[in-house]
């Protein structure tokens, strides 16, 4: 669906005071604990929430705008920058991305004083879509300033009647395929993004029980429908890649799905064992690896797939097969891997490797100066 993201930009979100990074077909983000990896992951999720009108609620769950804003001086904390204590610009949390075809940015700010019980909800101050890899006036296609939305109409602008609520994104509230096909395109592209960070393998995890089986081209966020997802790959996806991925991790093993009265149960036959093991008997690492098989070999690949610490619970011997699986998946969809495992990072043949570092509370990219960043311009308020 559409072109891939080539640039991700974040401003004033937690420790990400100013971050502009390139993304490739397969991008690996690494760094020490506390360097900002989780903040970058959350920023991507917030962008995805914007297309579903859920960014305001997501910020509220994080403690509100005041809790998520960069807490240091306005100009940063590095020693070569002035550290003024008086804010000159407006309070602003900004998120954006761009590709060769379209770019999108959203700017959240403080609410105007009111008597509403929701007076702490941040407001969307500016929201824009443009053509090309970075924002320029001639490339603007859709421009939302506070509640007013205007659309490019040839060489002029068309004002959209009505006012958008301060908490509504134009991506979710306006969809006219004739007047604004780019809004529909960007919305559907972002809505296809897929995130995995909470695949459950604990003793009480639903995946360890038989599940009702229906066609499942997309593994659920907690992995509970693993058996159905694997069977779907076998029937309508790349069954050979599935068998290859299992054999790479567990040589000589065979995966099967048993169906009884509409319920599916996973079985893994291994050399030397007299019977196959079910999901309830498999180790956390084995089960987690099979979940990554289902996620990465999905018959319905998203525009972007983001994996947060996929090495968790895996035996070191499984990291190289996982790297091969991720590489296979990246041939079908853009993948971002956020990891602290040097072994996994070293085994991945990534287009871009981003190592985050934190200096005086501010996250940056190791070896990247301002002149090394992709071109990026934020829309002014």
TrEMBL record:
Domain ATPase AAA-type core, first and last residues per copy: 26-345
Domain of life assignment: Bacteria
Pfam families the UniProt entry points to: AAA_21
Keyword terms, alphabetized: DNA damage, SOS response
Gene3D superfamilies given in the database record: P-loop containing nucleotide triphosphate hydrolases
InterPro entries: ATPase_AAA_core, P-loop_NTPase, RecF-like
Membrane-spanning residues: none
PANTHER family: DNA REPLICATION AND REPAIR PROTEIN RECF (PTHR32182), SLR1056 PROTEIN (PTHR32182:SF25)
Name of the protein this chain belongs to: AAA family ATPase
Species annotation: Cryptosporangium japonicum
């Amino acid at each position: 669906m559409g072109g891939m993201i080539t640039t991700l930009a974040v401003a004033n979100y937690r420790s990400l005071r100013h971050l502009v990074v390139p993304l490739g077909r397969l991008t690996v983000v690494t760094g020490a604990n506390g360097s900002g990896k989780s903040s970058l992951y959350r920023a991507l999720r917030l962008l995805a929430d914007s297309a579903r009108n859920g960014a305001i609620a997501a910020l509220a769950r994080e403690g509100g705008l005041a809790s998520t804003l960069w807490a240091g001086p306005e100009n940063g904390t590095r020693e070569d920058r002035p550290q003024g204590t008086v804010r000159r610009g407006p309070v602003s949390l900004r998120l954006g991305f761009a590709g060769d075809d379209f770019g999108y940015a959203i700017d959240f700010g403080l609410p105007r004083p009111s008597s509403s019980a929701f007076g702490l909800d941040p407001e969307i101050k500016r929201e824009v879509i443009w053509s090309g890899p970075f924002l320029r006036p001639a490339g603007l296609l859709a421009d939302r300033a506070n509640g007013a939305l205007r659309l490019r109409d040839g060489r002029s602008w068309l004002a959209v009647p009505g006012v958008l609520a301060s908490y509504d994104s134009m991506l979710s509230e306006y969809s006219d395929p004739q007047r604004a096909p780019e809004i529909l395109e960007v919305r559907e592209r972002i809505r296809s993004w897929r995130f995995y960070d909470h695949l459950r393998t604990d003793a009480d995890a639903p995946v360890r029980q038989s599940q009702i089986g229906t066609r499942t081209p997309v593994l659920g966020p907690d992995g509970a429908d693993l058996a159905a997802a694997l069977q779907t790959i076998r029937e309508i996806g790349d069954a050979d890649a599935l068998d290859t991925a299992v054999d790479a991790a567990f040589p000589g093993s065979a995966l099967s799905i048993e169906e009884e009265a509409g319920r599916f149960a996973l079985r893994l036959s291994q050399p030397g064992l007299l019977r196959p093991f079910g999901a309830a008997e498999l180790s956390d690492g084995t089960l987690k690896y099979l979940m990554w098989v289902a996620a990465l070999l999905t018959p319905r690949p998203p525009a972007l797939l983001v994996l947060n610490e996929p090495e968790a619970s895996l035996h070191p011997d499984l990291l190289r097969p996982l790297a091969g699986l991720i590489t296979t998946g990246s041939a079908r969809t853009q993948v971002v891997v956020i990891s602290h495992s040097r072994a996994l990072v070293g085994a991945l043949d990534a287009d871009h490797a981003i190592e985050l570092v934190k200096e005086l509370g501010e996250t940056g990219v190791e070896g990247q100066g301002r002149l090394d960043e992709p071109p990026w311009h934020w829309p002014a308020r």
